[in-house]
Amino acid sequence: MEILAILIPVSLFLGGVGLVAFFWAMKTKQFDDPEGDANRILTKDWDEHPKP
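User: That's the sequence. What structure does it adopt?
Assistant: Structure tokens below.
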């Protein structure tokens, strides 16, 4: 049972780090893709070598 005293705070800390990283990515517009698949699907051009 003593291990729970370590695991619970560690898991809460790691969850908080993940949440902060997610909000940072949203704030710095890491998920914005104005030239993404939503626009490319409407064009009739065929791309043999798509961008990575």
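The chain has a mean pLDDT of 85.
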